[in-house]
Every structure is written in structure tokens, then in C-alpha cells.
Amino acid sequence: MPLDFTAIDFETANSSAASACSVGLVRVRDGLVVASAGWLIRPPAGHDEFQEWNVRIHGIRAQDVRTASSWEDQFDRLCAFAGADVLVAHNAGFDLNVLRRASEATGGDCPPYRSLCSLQVARKIYDLESYRLPKAAEAAGFTGFSHHDALADALACAHIVIDAARRVGASDVFELAGALNVRITEPAITAPERAVA
Q1: In the chain, domain spans
Q2: Spatial separation of the C-alpha atoms in residues 138 and 48, rounded to whole Å
Q3: CB–CB of 128/136 below 8 Å?
Q4: What is the pTM of this model?
Q5: pLDDT digits over 44-54, tens only?
Q6: Lower Cβ count inside 10 Å, N or C end of the chain?
Q7: Dihedral of the CA atoms 51, 116, 169, 158 (nearest 10)?
Q8: Is the pLDDT of residue 189 over 50?
Q9: What is the CATH architecture assignment of 5-180?
């Protein structure tokens, strides 16, 4: 299998995981970046307050997303970009939680994505004082990007995984995960409810 995956990064309006206000997506095929996309999102109602702390981090304000597509309106576009790929993110638990929580907040179903954490990959492949995204990306040879811009962060994640795969000679994300002894998280599968007679 080739080194294929989609890197993803979200920015949020506040401390709610459902408050996605921006997404960045980077498609990698055979170890090369072949497509990227990023856009603003109007967070779901009830999760749409922009807190000062978050604004200070990413610079996105309520007025910036006023005319942006809502979570419901843009979700199909996001899923179409990602397809059935393994999703890669730096601290993947956060980004996958945003996917789930924003979907739940709008009554939608989130596809059962598998994920690989580039933070875990970086900790196994590099010897750094800090594994924050800018430092890990620099170790991968990707520098000078605007941290907390969702698209730039997704691109940085992609470069970490591409570099790590090259270093260990892994041909795909599963081989990379195995070589580094990190998990590709599988979605939780719930058993169907049985009718009670």
C-alpha cells in the first residue's frame, strides 16, 4: 500500500469541542501532498461564542465566520475530501473529538474515521525538547508556517508523517505505526440494539 492519508486540523471558537470555526485538510498520495483545502466554519448554535483566549490563539473572530458555511452545510465537503483515508493530526484525539462533537451538536452522524497522531509519531522519531507542532515540523524540514492557521497546521502534520515514514522506510501509515509502536485508532463500533420480545 502507498503512503496515503489526509491530515486535518481544526481551530475552535471556545472550549467546547463542538465549536469548530476553521478546518484545514491536506491529502497525501504515495508520500506526496497532492491537494489541500481550508475554510472558515460557522460553529453550531450553542457552541458559537468566541472566547478571547481562543481568538488570541488563532485570530478568528465571530464576524469572520458570519457568512461562512455552517457545520451542517460544510460537513459533506469535509467528508468528501477525506474519503476513507486515515486522518492524521497533531494531538489527533482533539481533532477527532471536534469531528464527533460538532456532528453530535447538529444531529449528524460522523463517519467512523481511523486516525494517527503525528504528535505520537514525532515523539518516537525525533529527539526534541518540545514536541509542539512548530518544533516537530521543523525537525521534519517544514518551517516558516503560520501556526494556528488550520491549513498550515494540517500541512505541517502531513510533513511530519511523510518524513517519519521516509526515516523508517515505511511504505504506508500502518507500517509506520507498527515500526514506531504507535496506534492507528479505530472507531468505536457499537453493537446493534436487539429488539426485546
Answers
A1: 5-180
A2: 33
A3: yes
A4: 0.93
A5: 999 999 999 99
A6: C
A7: -30
A8: no
A9: 2-Layer Sandwich (3.30)
